[in-house]
Design a protein that fits this description.
Shape of chain B: globular
CATH topology of chain C: Ubiquitin-like (UB roll)
Number of domains of chain C: 1
Structural class of chain B: alpha+beta
Strand content of chain C: 15-25%
Helix content of chain C: 10-25%
CATH class of chain C: Alpha Beta
Number of helices of chain C: 1
CATH architecture of chain C: Roll
Largest interface: A-C, 54 and 48 residues
Radius of gyration of chain B: 12 Å
Distance between the termini of chain C: 39 Å
Largest sheet of chain B: 4 strands, antiparallel
Oligomer: heterotrimer
Largest sheet of chain C: 5 strands, mixed
Order of helices and strands of chain B: EHEEEHEEE
Number of strands of chain B: 7
Chain lengths: 511, 89, 119
């Protein structure tokens, strides 16, 4: 016991190694050193109230992160050495990774930049240290994801140029613009957007049930980086909740500002996660949990408990959560049929779900699948069988705010698009929903400059006027390899040969 | 309205001791096995005690070691040398 | 409302009509035909006739839907930017108020998509 007493206890250690490392400046004013801290209108009275409940100090941080990395890379090595890609459930699964690598991993890098930036902007030392650790975490996530998937890149198409695609491909402007929106906001809005609304409220939906699904589909490398990243996420989420409570406790004037940010970023995150809904329901051949079930557990139940806790500060649940809750019955199906018809311009393949998968969806979506969505697939399957695999050859309208095609339907009216439009300073703007329209109205200057991929193609800024040139030359999507229908694709044929089955019927070749 | 806190662990050797300790110290908790993970939820409060963990493991255990195996949590966190607590107050 | 920023935050809209090299954007939504997941975004000449829009652009765009061949778009029910609208087949788009980034909504009575759910 004598040895133990020599050790500082956790609270003291945190005090010494975090706040006590900072100092009061004497020859410069605080507001000159931290010039971005006030313009958002957030009032901080006492930074010493900032509390990291994990009380993680830099020495412990390095120790535990090193241990996580060792475990992670041991698994990556084993996976590669044993040709782990041959043991996944089905090669259709790899398409989820293509979307992940081009859509999510670059966001990890954007988060690294975002936290590095805001970590410089707070005058409170505790907040600066927490942001610094998170910045390093995010960089680690971006790197480990690329390492994990580099093995797949050796064997499957569509994974060869993810950062380039992230900057250019039409649907990848959805995640990219989401993070650009957050990073171009002030430091407190950034934390509310990413630490609270995204990390605390929504990322469980991506990293918990989806990664558990990766395990269920035999992908040990992905589930391991997913869970390893998520182990940092537990800390980030805690930070997210503490940030919100800290800001709200500092001054009552902060409450309405934070409420508007929560409304905005819940919705922005929900729209972004619509991509995850189809990854879960359609891109995992072995199914663990439906999007609707995941939404119930991780948003309705856990989010419900959270917002009940925040009531005492005068915070209510996000404004359009009823629309999001209603959409759980439709979202994945609406997204998948969209990507199905625009597969000529994606770096991953799409397909019609197999019979057992459709039966699973009927069971998971008893009120909507058989009525609204099964008939679509039956029609599309008939067309494909007749050699007319459906592609929509006309570009879609995009939402000015979330940049998703305006494909979503009204709450309670699932055959009617929830399109909105308005005129601002003589220009017309179109939106996928009332919520995105609201976001625009609050900060029109931000969204009038949105780089909408469809409009950019029409302006002639994407190396060509026809889809083929744009896809090949501007996006770096290899035509006939990365895009189009899964059945008959090179990936499909490759998978058949791995499994020792005869190649797919050549007639089903989509291109 | 029910207010659940939760913690999710990777389904690995360390976490099995953690899960055992949590279930022993929180009889009101519910444990769910999902592919590659263990999820434990409970009404209002969950606690992990260092003492119980050390007993399970037969060695000294630092509360922060759990950071390696945890996937996700829900609830307000309070951590010190002897406990890790999740709660909605 | 406006952006809360550190400086005078003002930017040109990215999609002003002059950026489209003499062309303009037009959106067309055909309700109850959700096989097309969203309204079409079309690049059109402002001085093209409404008839040409139907024949040269809308019909090819919708051709893969079984209702397309049966649809009499010229005599269908139209909305221009959510207001009732009677198109003049031989007048140009711009002359009848179909300006840059306008949206046309066309309902074809009797043609309500497939499977009784507007697909």
């Amino acid at each position: 016991m004598a040895v133990k007493n020599k050790k500082l206890n956790l609270k003291d250690k945190y005090q010494y190694l975090t706040r006590d490392m900072a100092w009061e400046p004497t020859y410069q004013k605080m507001e000159d050193i931290y010039p971005d801290e006030r313009f958002e209108g957030i009032k901080i009275v006492d930074w010493s109230q900032w509390e990291d409940p994990f009380r993680l100090t830099m020495d412990a941080y390095w120790k535990y992160q090193a241990e996580k990395e060792k475990k992670l890379y041991a698994i990556f090595d084993a996976f590669a050495q044993n040709n782990g890609h041959q043991n996944i459930s089905d090669a259709r699964y790899v398409n989820a990774l293509k979307l992940f690598l081009s859509g999510v991993s670059p966001l990890e890098h954007a988060a690294f930049q975002g936290y590095s930036k805001v970590g410089r902007q707070f005058s409170g030392a505790g907040a600066r240290v927490a942001c610094q650790m998170q910045a390093i975490d995010e960089l680690r996530h971006s790197q480990t994801q690329q390492h994990a998937m580099s093995h797949y890149n050796k064997h499957f198409n569509g994974l060869h140029d993810a950062p380039h695609m992230h900057d250019r491909v039409w649907f990848l402007s959805v995640p990219k613009s989401f993070f650009d929106d957050a990073r171009s906001a002030g430091p407190f809005e950034f934390l509310t957007a990413i630490s609270f609304s995204f990390e605390y409220v929504l990322t469980n939906l991506l990293f918990v049930p989806f990664m558990s699904g990766a395990a269920y589909n035999g992908d040990m490398a992905t589930v391991t980086f997913g869970f390893s990243a998520q182990s940092d996420e537990a800390r980030h989420m805690t930070l997210g909740l503490e940030v919100i409570k800290f800001i709200l406790e500092q001054h009552e004037d902060n409450v309405p500002i934070v409420q508007r940010w929560i409304d905005k970023w819940f919705w922005r995150g929900f729209r972004l996660l619509s991509l995850v809904s189809m990854m879960m329901d359609y891109m995992l051949p072995n199914k663990v949990m439906s999007w609707s079930e995941a939404w119930e557990v991780y948003y309705e139940q856990n989010g419900g408990a959270l917002f009940k806790d925040l009531e005492r500060y005068g915070i209510r649940p996000p404004k359009y959560q009823d629309v999001a809750n209603d959409a759980k019955h439709h979202l994945s199906h609406q997204l998948w049929t969209t990507f199905y018809q625009y597969s000529q311009a994606t770096n991953f393949h799409t397909w019609i779900p197999e019979k057992e998968e459709m039966d699973w969806m009927s069971e998971k979506y008893p009120e909507t699948f058989d009525k609204y969505y099964r008939p679509r697939y039956e029609y599309l399957a008939k067309e494909a069988a007749a050699g007319r695999r459906f592609y929509n050859n006309t570009l879609p309208q995009l939402c000015q705010v979330c940049q998703v095609p305006t494909l979503f339907t009204e709450m309670g009216a699932p055959t009617k698009l929830s399109h909105r439009q308005l005129v601002h300073e003589g220009e017309r703007y179109h939106f996928c929903s009332e919520a995105c329209c609201d976001i625009f109205k609050h900060e029109p200057e931000k969204y009038v400059q949105a780089w909408l991929p469809v409009h950019q193609i029409y302006q002639g800024n994407c190396e060509g006027a026809d889809v083929e040139t744009v896809v090949q030359k501007y996006y770096h999507i290899n035509i006939g390899e990365d895009n189009f229908e899964y059945l008959g694709s090179p990936d499909h044929k490759h998978w058949m040969s791995i499994k020792g089955e005869k190649p797919a019927d050549e007639n089903q070749d989509a291109a | 309205m029910s207010q659940l806190v939760f913690i999710v662990f990777q389904d690995n050797d360390n976490a099995r001791y953690l899960a055992e300790a949590v279930m022993e110290d929180n009889p009101h908790a519910e444990l769910q096995h999902q592919p590659a993970m263990i999820r434990i939820q409970a009404e209002k409060r969950l606690v992990i005690n260092r003492e119980t963990m050390e007993e399970k493991l037969g060695r000294d255990w630092d509360v922060q070691e759990m950071l390696i195996d945890v996937i996700s949590i829900g609830g307000n966190v309070d951590e010190d040398d002897d406990h890790f607590i999740l709660e909605w107050k | 409302m406006s952006v809360n920023a550190l400086y005078d935050y003002k930017f040109e809209p990215k999609d002003k009509v002059e950026n489209f090299n003499g062309m303009q954007l037009l959106y067309v939504y055909w309700p109850d035909h959700l096989m097309f997941c969203a309204p079409f975004a079309l690049l059109v000449q402002p001085d093209m006739t409404f008839r040409a829009l139907i024949e040269e652009i809308l019909k090819p765009a919708t051709a893969s839907h079984p209702d397309s061949a049966k649809a009499d778009f010229l005599n269908a029910e139209w909305l221009l930017n959510d207001e009732p609208f009677t198109p003049d087949a031989d007048a140009s788009l711009i002359a009848q108020g179909i300006d840059h980034k306008s949206m046309l909504t066309v309902t074809t009575p009797g043609l309500n998509g497939m499977a009784n759910v507007g697909y």
